[in-house]
């Protein structure tokens, strides 16, 4: 009997490990897709400007103007790639990082999608808010919360507030939206695997996010409202601060 129980426990552990690897790939794919959108826009602008410059080669003033715009677009590309690489270089150990930088990086990485959907973004940073973390993992969690919020917002009417606050014994990162709120049937099981209200969702993003935050000694909680004049959802990450 003991051997049978141990075998079942081993199978369960392997299944959980495979599930976590699968979701990490899914999250990475979603993250990469967002970065591709950010890169594609300036690339299209540069391509069009190069074409125009060839046609306007006899007009030095227009050529000079085009070159200035191309330079600006190249700076945008540099910013996007720099932000993407800052926290995604391989980390063998956790490092002390200002979580305001992570929150701002997540917003910048998804600025194109936020703009396309007409989402108003507000920031409330009370830093520095330093914590010893794996930066790429916390960035993925914050990115996932932002993208989830965008998915439920009505185009042109959405508002997202990202805040970072240092408290006496911990740091709060919150992502708040004015969406329709989480359906009651999902709210009680939100951090379980395969639970989602989205037709195309895997139901694993919040499950993995909660595991990542727990690994850092923190918690991921939420509150939501679907009634009255104020609907919406707030997710709050609590992490121990450095020192």
Which descriptors apply to this entry?
single chain; 243 residues; alpha+beta; Helix Hairpins; 2 domains; 5-stranded mixed sheet
Beta-strand residue fraction? 15-25%
Name the assembly state. Answer: single chain
CATH architecture of the largest domain: 2-Layer Sandwich
Number of strands: 7
The profile of the biggest β sheet is:
5 strands, mixed
The count of domains is 2
Q: Average pLDDT across residues? A: 81
Radius of gyration from CA coordinates: 21 Å
Count of separate DSSP helical elements: 7
Helix content: 40-55%
H/E element string? HHEHHEEHEEHHEE
Strand order across the biggest sheet? 2-4-5-7-6
Gap from first CA to last CA: 47 Å
Based on CA inertia axes, which overall geometry fits?
Answer: globular
Going by CATH, the homologous superfamily of the largest domain would be Histidine kinase-like ATPase, C-terminal domain
Give a description of the structure:
It catalyses: ATP + protein L-histidine = ADP + protein N-phospho-L-histidine. This is histidine kinase. Its EC number is 2.7.13.3. By secondary structure, the protein is an alpha+beta fold. It has 2 domains: 2-85, Orthogonal Bundle (Helix Hairpins); 92-239, Histidine kinase-like ATPase, C-terminal domain (Heat Shock Protein 90, 2-Layer Sandwich), CATH 3.30.565. The protein contains 7 helices and 7 strands, in the order ααβααββαββααββ. The strands form 2 sheets. The chain has a 5-stranded mixed sheet with strand order 2-4-5-7-6. Strands 1-3 form a two-stranded antiparallel sheet. α1 packs antiparallel against α2 and α5 (135-152) runs antiparallel to α7. The longest helix is centred in the first third of the chain and has 54 residues, at 2-55.
């Amino acid at each position: 009997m003991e051997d049978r129980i141990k075998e079942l426990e081993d199978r369960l552990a392997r299944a959980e490990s495979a599930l976590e690897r699968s979701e990490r790939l899914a999250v990475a794919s979603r993250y990469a897709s967002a970065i591709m959108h950010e890169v594609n826009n300036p690339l299209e602008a540069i391509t069009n400007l190069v074409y125009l410059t060839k046609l306007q080669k006899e007009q030095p003033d227009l050529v000079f103007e085009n070159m200035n715009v191309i330079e600006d677009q190249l700076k945008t590309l540099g910013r996007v790639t720099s932000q993407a690489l800052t926290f995604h270089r391989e980390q063998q150990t956790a490092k002390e990082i200002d979580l305001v930088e992570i929150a701002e990086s997540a917003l910048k990485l998804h600025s194109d999608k936020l703009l396309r959907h007409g989402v108003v973004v507000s920031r409330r940073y009370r830093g520095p808010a330093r914590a010893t973390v794996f930066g790429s993992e916390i960035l993925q969690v914050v990115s996932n919360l932002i993208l989830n919020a965008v998915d439920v917002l009505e185009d042109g009417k959405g508002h997202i507030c990202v805040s970072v606050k240092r408290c006496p014994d911990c740091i709060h990162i919150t992502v708040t939206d004015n969406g329709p709120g989480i359906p009651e049937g999902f709210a009680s099981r939100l951090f379980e695997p395969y639970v989602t209200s989205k037709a195309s969702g895997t139901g694993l993003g919040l499950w993995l996010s909660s595991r990542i935050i727990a690994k850092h000694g923190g918690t991921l909680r939420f509150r939501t409202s679907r009634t009255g004049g104020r609907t919406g959802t707030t997710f709050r990450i609590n992490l121990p601060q450095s020192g």
